[in-house]
Design brief:
CATH superfamily of the largest domain: Ribonuclease H-like superfamily/Ribonuclease H
GO molecular function: nucleic acid binding
Distance between the termini: 97 Å
Structural class: alpha+beta
Largest sheet: 7 strands, antiparallel
Low-confidence stretches: 160-167, 250-260
Order of helices and strands: HHHHHHHHEEEHEHEHHHEEEEEEEH
Organism: Haploplasma axanthum (Acholeplasma axanthum)
CATH topology of the largest domain: Nucleotidyltransferase, domain 5
CATH class of the largest domain: Alpha Beta
Number of strands: 12
Protein name: Integrase core domain
Length: 461
């Protein structure tokens, strides 16, 4: 007869039921002692009478859990992180495992697996980094050799006590009440640094616009603003950093009356948007923290989707923003919105424009970006202006050129350096004459047209 070993709790149940059966004791006292009902006591008595001591062994003893992570799966997860999903934070890595690799694992199990293999998350908190640092420092003090993982941890992550300087502020009450806007220079994709321009709604945490450009440019911010206007509406206020794109004051004359309204400031004024600037990063902590999140997630998403160019990156952003907002913003909290609708007659191409001052020369042409242009009326006629006539040149968002003179708009057409056709030496180009087709409603043709319809109806019967 084999020896039956019970765990402490199982042993207590066995001894209590055994004593109850032998002495024909009180079932209520046994139930109170074991913390179970009398019905369960009766079941245990039946098991004891049928199987004896073995019946008190738990049914799951020596059975593997259905959700156990096998050694093979652990190796696969570690291999995926080290080769494909490196630099992903652990939560993002868990999402990618389920979405792309069809591997389901809980966050705690994944964290314990990576932590056991000395893999530190890029988003690790201060206390976690301190734990790793103290573990490594203790080994160094005891002159113990460091493993390859520990050495790479020091080199790759530079374990130090990070400083969190972002002061937290309460969110605004309404969506569209305040947008924070900025740009982040980083190695987002490829081998050259680019600038990601973005705007986030302070109340909802939603990214309302994002755009990549080679530098931090007016064009980048215009694209972000245009996305916001088209997808949401006109916000109440924009908060940006104190750059000359947004705020410019003359150094010679710093008084307010000598301040110059920037191109972006002019566009905001036309739309009725309050433009505020600050030189303190903590004042716009929402956008600063957003870039920290995007640098942890977006870079890796761009890499695994093989994004190499700015055009590809901007196209990828259109689908990524919806996914990001659905997961991280408060769009499902029914926060009231104060975005204003754009009037149907508002031409954003002319509002989001670059404006310059120019003068006409003696040849009734003005110079813009090292090219000469002439003004044409709406009818397509060339309009000549006197020497030194002042004009405001407007380069629209869709790259069309206009000039404004005495409150009248003219289209600017580039003056060719040479004639495209010579009247003296080139044969005249004959224009193709459009053939006139008599309409079916013409009196001379209506009878034959009606007869054709009648024949068609007769054949279809």
């Amino acid at each position: 007869m084999r020896k039956v070993e019970l765990k402490p709790m199982e042993q207590m149940k066995y001894e209590t039921i055994k004593k109850l059966v032998i002495n024909n004791g009180n079932k209520l006292n046994a139930a109170n002692k074991l913390g179970i009902s009398i019905r369960q006591v009766n079941r245990l008595i039946i098991k004891y009478n049928e199987q004896g001591k073995e019946s008190f062994i738990h049914g799951n003893r020596k059975k593997s859990p259905s959700l156990i992570i096998t050694d093979e799966m652990k190796k696969q997860i570690l291999n995926l992180y080290n080769n494909k999903y490196y630099n992903f934070n652990f939560k993002h890595f868990k999402e990618m495992l389920l979405e792309n690799e069809k591997i389901k694992i809980s966050y705690n199990s994944l964290y314990n697996l990576l932590d056991k293999n000395l893999i530190l998350s890029p988003k690790a908190e201060i206390i976690t980094k301190r734990k790793y640092r103290d573990r490594i420092q203790t080994k160094i003090d005891l002159n113990e050799s460091l493993s390859i993982q520990e050495k790479s941890l020091i080199i790759d992550n530079n374990i130090l006590d990070p400083k969190d300087n972002h002061a937290r502020l309460p969110r605004k009450k309404y969506g569209g009440e305040l947008l924070q806007m900025d740009a982040s220079e980083h190695l987002w994709f490829g081998d050259k640094k680019t600038h990601l321009h973005a705007a986030i709604d302070d109340a909802t945490g939603m990214i309302v616009g994002a755009y990549f450009d080679h530098q931090e440019t007016l064009n980048g911010y215009y694209n972000v603003l245009k996305q916001t206007l088209e997808n949401h509406g006109i916000p109440n206020e924009l908060l940006t950093d104190r750059r000359t794109i947004f705020d410019y004051k003359s150094l010679k004359n710093p008084q307010p009356e000598y301040s110059t309204l920037t191109q972006f400031g002019y566009a905001c004024e036309q739309l009725g948007i309050t433009l505020s600037v600050t030189s303190i990063p903590q004042a716009k902590g929402r956008i600063e923290r957003l870039f920290g999140t995007l640098q942890s997630r977006l870079i890796n998403e761009l890499r695994i989707n093989n994004i190499k160019t700015i055009n590809q990156a901007n196209e990828f952003l259109q689908s990524y923003l919806g996914k990001f907002n659905k997961q991280f913003s408060l769009i499902n909290d029914n926060i009231p919105q104060v975005y204003e609708k754009i009037n149907s007659d508002t031409d954003l191409n002319l509002i989001l424009a670059i404006i310059s001052n120019r003068v006409f020369d003696r040849g009734s042409a003005l110079k813009y970006q090292n090219k000469y242009f002439q003004a044409y009326s709406k009818n397509g006629d060339l309009v000549n202006f006197k020497h030194r006539t002042k004009a405001i040149v407007i380069k629209s968002f869709d790259n069309k050129l206009y000039c404004l003179i005495n409150s009248v708009y003219y289209k600017l057409i580039e003056l060719e350096s040479h004639e495209s056709n010579s009247k003296e030496f080139d044969l005249p180009v004959e224009k193709e004459k459009k053939k006139y087709t008599v309409p079916n409603s013409h009196p001379w043709k209506s009878d034959s047209y009606n007869r054709m319809i009648e024949r068609a109806m007769y054949k279809s019967r």
